[in-house]
Specification:
Length: 209
């Protein structure tokens, strides 16, 4: 058996439009100017709290604790309004499953929001496990996030590969001794990745199944 560990935002789904809408509503509640979708996409990858810190700091404001709970509730409730799976990703997941790949999600997004999004898009069925940024004491780029997935799935680093669009994915996987595939259709940088997938459709061929 082989294990494919997927990042979520920018890898499985194009979620920047929904994240931007939720973030901009949080900013509006504090009379702060909104960001464009591309600007938000560039800030995604470090988790919800880090996104809020970046946004508030960029607007010359200080993030306070009262901002976080309504933001998380809004994110969980409205994560699939505009979000869509990347073209070809579901077919790639199905092909890999037939070829014997197990699949998990390792995301810095809160796990409840991640599961709600995958469920709404009908994609939860592809994954045995979803690990969020609040599931473990650490999150990507800490290797412990990926190692936690391996432990839960009873798989070794040698049996596994991480697919993601962000440096956090690559750093966390490499620190855990796991091969990396950069999802070039996403939001981030692939420096240091072992392989590069230009399109989701390329994944089964790159990974041999």
């Amino acid at each position: 058996m082989k294990l494919a560990i997927f990042d979520l935002d920018g890898t499985l789904v194009d979620s920047a439009p929904d994240i931007a809408a939720v973030l901009n509503r949080a900013l509006a509640r504090h009379k702060l100017a909104p960001f464009t979708v591309p600007q938000v996409a560039a800030m995604v990858g470090d988790g919800a709290h880090a996104l809020l810190v970046k946004a508030f700091t960029a607007r010359g404001a200080t993030l306070t604790d009262d901002v976080i709970p309504p933001f998380l509730a809004d994110l969980e409730a409205n994560s699939a309004n505009l979000t869509q799976p990347y073209e070809g990703i579901e077919a790639a997941l199905a092909t890999m499953g037939v070829a014997g790949w197990r699949a998990a999600v390792c995301t810095n997004k809160p796990v409840a929001a991640a599961q709600a999004l995958l469920r709404a898009l009908g994609m939860l069925r592809f994954f045995e496990l979803v690990v969020g940024g609040d599931t473990l004491p650490v999150r990507k780029p800490d290797p412990g996030h990926v190692l936690g997935v391996l432990k839960a799935m009873h798989m070794s680093p040698a049996q596994s590969v991480m697919i993601g669009d962000h440096q956090n994915d690559i750093l966390a996987a490499k620190g855990a001794g796991v091969r990396t595939v950069f999802a070039a259709w996403g939001y981030g940088s692939g420096e240091g990745a072992d392989l590069v997938a230009r399109r989701p459709q390329d994944l089964p061929f790159l990974l041999g199944g």
